[in-house]
From TrEMBL:
Gene Ontology terms: biological process: tRNA wobble base 5-methoxycarbonylmethyl-2-thiouridinylation
Domain Elp3/MiaA/NifB-like radical SAM core: 43-278
GO cellular component: cytoplasm
Leader peptide range in chain numbering: none
Superkingdom of origin organism: Archaea
Cofactor(s) required for function per UniProt: [4Fe-4S] cluster
Protein name: Archaeosine biosynthesis radical SAM protein RaSEA
InterPro entries, sorted: ELP3, Elp3/MiaA/NifB-like_rSAM, RaSEA, rSAM_sf
GO molecular function, one term: 4 iron, 4 sulfur cluster binding
Annotated keywords: 4Fe-4S, Iron, Iron-sulfur, Metal-binding, S-adenosyl-L-methionine
Species name: Methanobacterium alkalithermotolerans
Length: 353
């Protein structure tokens, strides 16, 4: 109960400070090479404006590490505003080869209160008619993964992969509830995965799990182990792909408050490498380590000498699904000590070089 109250207070405070942006200002798109189901390939990323994640706007205050709500319109955005912005993005890009289209809405694409049904239909129908769209990827909390809705979405994309990414974050219900304030259980997650698995005989529907690396109140050592265990669990549950999200300090979150007070530090980059290398050995589905924020003051960090090099090595390892090669650096010893012996949830006194 306490974590909800705290998160709600911090969220309210932060929402008051955020400068409200129009749907046009929030909508954006970019191209990047990424891992498709068929291997390396182009991906069109787009952010479509909505009213924002219902969970973050609820009494719960949302998840302890997430500030997506600050990138939302906060008030509902009607279909008549979303549809032209989507078409504007699609008109800007010519898809010359099989491409994945990733739609981010700073919340749940499948929640009709966030993404109006009319807009959802128009978006999927349009993508279904473009030959070089190979995959459509959306994000959703598991409670909106409903059999009828998924069937309808897939019916617009007959020959394309439709992937639903869900923020499992951790295989531990305790971590998800008390450290992340996620608001759903493993059982809820498994039900959603079952629905997707069940529809695979009829459609090219797939699922992805996001796993948070090092939630609050977690030591470096625990963070590594929990991320690996969560990937093993996700594969067993029937997930098709995994994406690790190493914690980064976003504004207006509980994680930021703890970081400011010296009670939290994002993971070492060495830890993310240990996780991805072990997962590549132990798990048979594709796994990505997201490198956003690596090497920055608020993100995963080693030292100035090795941050960028390791970041690039992880990106390559993601695209080819191969282990990250061994590299030596003076900072590695400190990480080894911290990640081997410290079992307390702080890792905060580290001086960053
Ligand atoms: S992580 Fe997802 S569910 Fe949690 S607050 Fe952010 S958008 Fe909402
Ligand atoms: Zn280093």
């Amino acid at each position: 109960m306490q974590i909800k109250k705290l998160t709600r207070e911090i969220r309210n405070k932060s929402l008051k400070k955020v400068k409200k942006r129009s749907p046009e200002e929030l909508s954006t798109s970019w191209y990047q090479e990424d891992l498709l189901y068929q291997g390396r390939g182009p991906t069109l990323f787009m952010i479509l404006p909505t009213g924002g994640c219902s969970w973050a706007l609820s009494e719960s205050g949302g998840c302890t590490m997430c500030s997506y709500i600050n990138d939302s319109h906060v008030e509902n955005v009607p279909a008549r505003d979303i549809i032209p912005l989507f078409h504007e993005i699609m008109d800007k890009h010519t898809l010359e080869e099989p491409t994945a289209v990733k739609i981010f809405t700073s919340g749940s694409f499948l929640n009709p209160d966030e993404m109006p049904v009319e807009a959802r239909r128009e978006i999927l129908q349009t993508l279904g008619e473009i030959e070089n769209v190979a995959e459509v990827v959306v994000e959703s909390r598991p409670e909106y993964v409903n059999r009828e809705i998924i069937k309808e979405c897939c019916s617009y994309l007959p020959d394309k992969i439709f992937e639903i990414s869900m923020g499992l974050e951790s295989a531990s219900d305790h971590t998800r509830e008390y450290k992340i304030n996620k608001g759903f259980s493993k059982k809820d997650f498994e039900q959603a995965v079952e629905i997707i698995k069940d529809l695979k005989s009829e459609y090219k529907v797939r699922s992805k799990a996001y796993i948070l690396v090092k939630p609050i109140l977690t030591s470096e050592k625990q963070g590594i182990q929990e991320a690996i265990d969560s990937a093993i669990y996700a594969e067993k549950a029937g997930i098709d792909r995994i994406s690790f999200c190493p914690a980064t300090i976003h504004k207006g979150t509980l994680i930021e408050e703890l970081w400011r007070k010296g009670s939290y530090q994002p993971p070492w980059i060495w830890s993310t490498i240990k996780i991805i290398n072990q997962v590549r050995e132990k798990v048979n589905i594709p796994a990505i380590m997201d490198t956003s924020g690596f090497g920055s003051r608020r993100g995963p960090y080693n030292c100035k000498k090795c941050n960028s090099k390791l970041k690039q090595m992880i990106i390559d390892s993601n695209l080819d699904q191969i282990p990250v090669k061994e590299l030596e650096c003076d900072c590695k010893n400190q990480w080894q000590v911290e990640s081997s012996f410290c079992d307390i949830g702080r890792s905060t006194t580290r001086i960053r070089y």
